[in-house]
């Protein structure tokens, strides 16, 4: 048993400069994926709750396709699709793929929190003479946005782990580096253990931050 | 002040209002009673155009509303509504709740709105709660804020849908007190309530709705002592 600790330790010490760089790439991918996903998600959530049948149908098709296919396929599809049209770095192709993927899930988060607002809120607002737009922007959205933050944080954590899949198009993030390390060093077990540790620590940090935020929300509301 | 003529309202196959005629005069306080499901809330919501009537017409302050042409948003602003479950905006403080509509709808200056808000909160006895969030208030306090919020739009008529039904018994009085004061000041009011003591003391007229029709309309004394309709008699026995 102690032997494994020393070899893992050795691998860790030898590789951490590279992994720290790869961690930055992973975090960048995640951040762009979530931010882009939030913008896309907001647009599609609005389409889904809009009065227009066409807009709703488009949103439904998008969400169904994204949720119904594996992320890794979407990455490949977008990668080869985009690279045909534009020259673009692998990093951006991967980040955009994550954004498009997240968009569908975040659209559902926003839609859920908007529709989860008590209809009485809308009625009270309308009864005061506010129109639909004012009711949405002043009463419904601010409350929905607050409710969205915990699931968005959750989505961030999922994205952090999902971003490992862009190794397939050769982006130098954590998993991709670990993969290379495993092959070159003939120490796959130790290498992937180190990879797992990086993800675990990152996820724990973000989970902790999310908790802090949720507690603060609870305190504000109590 | 508010006149409903031959109001019909259906939800799908279910006809909830079957030709209601109700003429509320300026400064009049009308109490609506009736068993659960008789259509009381629906009638109030039609008066505020939260529901659209299928047939009939509604006239507010001399203007017969044409739902297709008129700006319903503007009409709603003239008809205040107080809900059973308060429906305060939880992300806004008490004062912000009150001044939200004057600022966004009437484009009132913030300073002016705050002054108005402070006056109204004083009127309902909550001037010291201006900066508190609704979650910190008791049910009775919430409902008083909701009344102040509604008053801030200077409505021509106020509709109350069971304003005290969600309250603990000891908190009912403070809300009824505010409503009584409003009535004394000459506000035109339509109130759905089970508080018969309030009805007797404050109402000019009590109206019984049954299965989507008005079956009794009388001043409190006659309503309780000399009801005409059999269903009204049963209802009175039930609540007394
Ligand atoms: N939006 C709606 N869709 C379908 N049916 C509805 C809707 N609103 C009310 N109803 C139905 O209309 C009928 C009358 O409802 P309403 O709320 O007006 O009754 P009420 O007299 O206010 O009763 P309560 O004393 O329980 O509040 C009920 O059968 C109710 O189920
Ligand atoms: Mg009701």
UniProtKB/TrEMBL annotation, chain A:
Note whether Acyltransferase occurs among the keywords: no
Asked if Transport is a keyword of the record, the answer is yes
Q: Give the subcellular location.
A: Cell membrane
What broad class describes the main subcellular location of this protein?
Answer: membrane
Report membrane topology.
Answer: Multi-pass membrane protein
- For this entry, the protein name equals Polar amino acid transport system permease protein
Q: Which family does it belong to?
A: Belongs to the binding-protein-dependent transport system permease family.
InterPro entries in alphabetical order = AA_ABC_transptr_permease_3TM, ArtM/GltK/GlnP/TcyL/YhdX-like, MetI-like, MetI-like_sf
Q: Please list the residue ranges annotated as the ABC transmembrane type-1 domain.
A: 23-210
List the keywords (alphabetical): Cell membrane, Membrane, Transmembrane, Transmembrane helix, Transport
Question: What are the TM regions of this chain, as residue ranges?
Answer: 22-47, 59-82, 192-213
Family annotation (Pfam families)? BPD_transp_1 (PF00528)
Gene3D superfamilies associated with the record: MetI-like
From TrEMBL, chain B:
Against InterPro entries, the record matches this protein to: AAA+_ATPase (IPR003593), ABC_ATPase_HisP-typ (IPR030679), ABC_transporter-like_ATP-bd (IPR003439), ABC_transporter-like_CS (IPR017871), MetN_ABC_transporter-like (IPR050086), P-loop_NTPase (IPR027417)
Annotated Gene Ontology MF terms? ATP binding
Q: Which domain of life is it from?
A: Bacteria
Q: Which UniProt keywords apply?
A: ATP-binding, Nucleotide-binding, Transport
Which residue ranges does UniProt annotate as crossing the membrane? none
Q: Which Pfam families match?
A: ABC_tran
* Gene3D superfamilies (alphabetical): P-loop containing nucleotide triphosphate hydrolases (3.40.50.300)
Question: Which part of the chain is the ABC transporter domain?
Answer: 2-236
- Write down what this protein is called: Polar amino acid transport system ATP-binding protein
Q: Which organism is it from?
A: Planomicrobium stackebrandtii
């Amino acid at each position: 048993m102690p032997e494994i600790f020393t070899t893992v330790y050795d691998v860790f010490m030898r590789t951490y400069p590279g992994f720290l760089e790869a961690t930055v790439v992973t975090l960048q991918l995640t951040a762009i994926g979530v931010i882009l996903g939030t913008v896309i998600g907001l647009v599609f959530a609005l389409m889904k709750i809009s009065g227009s049948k066409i807009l709703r149908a488009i949103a439904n098709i998008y969400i169904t396709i994204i949720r119904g296919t594996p992320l890794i396929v979407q990455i490949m599809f977008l990668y080869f699709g985009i690279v045909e049209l534009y020259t673009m770095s692998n990093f951006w192709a991967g980040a955009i793929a994550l954004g498009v993927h997240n968009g569908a899930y975040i659209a559902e988060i926003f839609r859920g929190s908007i529709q989860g607002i008590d209809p009485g809120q809308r009625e009270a607002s309308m009864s005061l003479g506010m129109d639909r737009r004012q009711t949405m922007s002043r009463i419904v959205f601010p409350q929905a946005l607050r409710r969205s933050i915990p699931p968005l944080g959750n989505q961030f954590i999922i994205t952090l782990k999902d971003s490992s899949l862009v190794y397939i198009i050769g982006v130098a993030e954590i998993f991709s580096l670990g993969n290379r390390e495993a092959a070159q060093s003939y120490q796959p077990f130790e290498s992937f253990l180190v990879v797992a540790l990086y993800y675990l620590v990152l996820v724990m940090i973000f989970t902790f931050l999310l908790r802090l935020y949720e507690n603060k929300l609870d305190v504000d509301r109590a | 002040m508010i006149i409903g003529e031959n109001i019909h309202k259906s939800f799908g196959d279910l006809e909830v209002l079957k030709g209601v005629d109700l003429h509320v005069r300026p400064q009049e306080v009308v109490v609506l009673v009736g068993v659960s499901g008789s259509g009381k809330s629906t009638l109030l919501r039609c008066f505020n155009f939260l529901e659209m009537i299928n047939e009939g017409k509604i006239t507010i302050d001399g203007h017969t509303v044409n739902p297709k042409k008129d700006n319903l948003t503007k009409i709603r602003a003239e008809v205040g509504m107080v809900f059973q479950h308060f429906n305060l905006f939880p992300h806004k403080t008490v004062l912000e709740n009150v001044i939200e509509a004057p600022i966004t709808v009437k484009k009132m200056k913030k300073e002016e709105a705050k002054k108005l808000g402070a006056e109204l909160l004083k009127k309902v006895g909550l001037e010291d709660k201006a900066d508190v969030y609704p979650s910190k208030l008791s049910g009775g306090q919430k409902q008083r804020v909701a009344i102040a919020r509604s008053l801030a739009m200077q409505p021509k008529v106020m509709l109350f849908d069971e304003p005290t039904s969600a309250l603990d018994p000891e908190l009912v009085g403070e809300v009824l007190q505010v409503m009584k004061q409003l009535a004394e000041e000459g506000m035109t009011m339509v109130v759905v309530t089970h508080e018969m003591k309030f009805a007797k003391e404050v109402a000019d007229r009590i109206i019984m709705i049954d299965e989507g029709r008005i079956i009794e309309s009388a001043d409190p004394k006659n309503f309780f002592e000399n009801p005409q309709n059999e269903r009204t008699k049963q209802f009175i026995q039930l609540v007394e």
